[in-house]
């Protein structure tokens, strides 16, 4: 057992200081910020699969070499076969061109296979990494992040990165083709090469300007898309609220405003493309026209063979597509970097609440003893500019829960009742004091073990789109049918489950809205019980359950689960009266405790709070 709070030594005080600091801001991550962060993420993805990426690039390079060889072979077939009327030479050089062309086709298929396979693997790997990281982040991160924005980063942003990774073998192959063709052009005819390539410096300059102008628009599009997704996600998730109060017009206007913002960002990118892409497309064709004009004159003058002119034109055409694709590759790269920045922002977020490096195990006994000792906690500022400057929700909070006891937590709205279980389960960390579960500081426990030991059921019961049995056994998918039935029985859910079309196998709709509020709450309680927690918290989780069923549930907790310690947060007098002890919270600390009837008789403030809550609920 740790020493009591009043005798805590320097290491404990230091740990509280660190916890408070982490609540104030997220720790920096491993990627540099901005564009460098996007490139760093992409580089990491490539490094993880460097071997297979090299295979894809190699097939792309082999494709480029085969493509470059074909015009030279055609030139030889014309000059040595057709011009000299040598059928044997024509057949040999034509066959060689056909064979190399077949090799180029084979490499093109292999290049596409490896490119898209590695892109998909990288996307799947990054999605799994991002999902795993999100699961490890603390509640303060999700307090300031919208679900729509996170969904956008997990889907469309990853798709942008994957599309860019697909292009790498193609782009490198095209680059080799440009370099090889440029060398061959100068070898064949320096004057014609200058005619063909004279526009390249301008293409490079325009490409750089295009990239710098396009990146802000790409970043804006990604952010605006996330805002649109957030509105859609919130509207679909809250469709009952929207329809229930006739706010469809409000949401339509909100979506229209965000869609207009996305349109404005997209049009900015369109204007940038319209300004630069035509020039990037036109300049290579100017070189082709010069080659035809000057080269044709040289053929007529006898200083250039017909085969050389044909090969020269084919080579110039081989330059046109890579140069035309330059704008496309730049735009795709900018989208990928912008997406990489947004994904890296999430991956670089560090949880303010993290498990210890050397966790302590929970002892076998006692089971369910909870101690809050001189706890102080204030929620951090929502704008994250500085530390928690708002007033403390709990300050000098002391509470002991005896194993097997049922305690009702009562207080006015906003007094910190729901904060108590959130601190117990380490959704947030205390800034002073400590919380012990069975004699172990909760900060010394592995988070998974702690949260299995503390089962919390909230008023809003979230169910997953799965069977009733799967929802109850959510924490332990391999749970036996007997344990699932036992949890359902204690939660008072057996009767209505039996009446469902397929009983335990019945699929519940999204979020469980195919069931009534009371049915959802009972399944949520059963789900928490299936994990056999040491402490069960019912945070207004029986508000839709009648008093008789509620008594049966609490009696079941006292019997079948071996006196589970239960913390009930409620304003319902009938619920509070069932508790062994009532704890009244006021001004951030325990103001009174005892039996419900005794507190009504001796504490006027307690009676006033209950009366106000009853009137508000009515």
Characterization of this structure:
This protein is an alpha/beta fold and 618 residues long. The protein has 2 domains: 32-347, ABC transporter transmembrane region fold (Up-down Bundle), CATH 1.20.1560.10; 370-617, P-loop containing nucleotide triphosphate hydrolases (Rossmann fold, 3-Layer(aba) Sandwich). The chain contains 22 helices and 10 strands. The longest helix is centred in the middle third of the chain and has 54 residues, at 248-301.
Total of domains: 2
User: What class would the helix/strand composition place it in?
Assistant: alpha/beta
Q: Characterize the largest beta sheet: strand count, sense, and whether it forms a barrel.
A: 6 strands, mixed
Approximate strand percentage: 5-15%
Q: What is the terminal-to-terminal distance?
A: 46 Å
Core attributes:
618 residues, alpha/beta, ABC transporter transmembrane region fold, Rossmann fold, 6-stranded mixed β-sheet, 4-stranded antiparallel β-sheet, 10 strands, 64% helix, 9% strand, elongated
